[in-house]
Automatic annotation (TrEMBL):
This is PepSY domain-containing protein. The lineage of its organism: Bacteria, Pseudomonadati, Pseudomonadota, Alphaproteobacteria, Rhodospirillales. The keyword Signal applies. Residues 1-24 form the signal peptide. It comes from the Bacteria. Keywords: Plasmid, Signal. InterPro entries: PepSY. Residues 41-98 form the PepSY domain. Gene3D superfamilies: 3.10.450.40.
Length: 109
């Protein structure tokens, strides 16, 4: 299994840098400030929690700045093949929403 700990600590910052221009710089700085000031948890803690509860592997992560606070949105593939979308409160680590579906198998299952 690949070791991703150090990279996961920087991921929230990098995710906010996905835009362009001054807006991206503002998003990047807000995310970095929130992490530095302890207003959001490190992504590594959220990923560990998700993997303990659901197993599987993380496919994608987003950090969203919503009106009611930051949220981590994770997509993972569970051991049974389901694709799960998990929304976490970035400040508390509370799991807010779980959605899932079975992955398509080219054989019609």
């Amino acid at each position: 299994m690949m070791r991703t700990g150090p990279a996961l600590l920087l991921l929230p910052i990098l995710l906010f840098a996905a835009g362009t221009g001054a807006h991206a710089d503002d998003d990047h700085e807000r995310a970095r400030s929130a992490l530095r000031e302890g207003r959001i948890l490190p992504l590594e803690r959220i990923v560990e929690s998700a993997k303990q509860q659901f197993g599987g592997d993380v496919l994608d992560v987003d950090l969203e700045d919503e009106e009611d606070g930051f949220r981590y949105e994770l997509k993972l593939i569970a051991p049974d093949g389901r694709i799960l979308k998990l929304d976490y409160d970035a400040a508390t680590g509370e799991l807010l929403r779980t959605r899932g579906r079975h992955r398509s198998h080219g054989d019609g299952r």
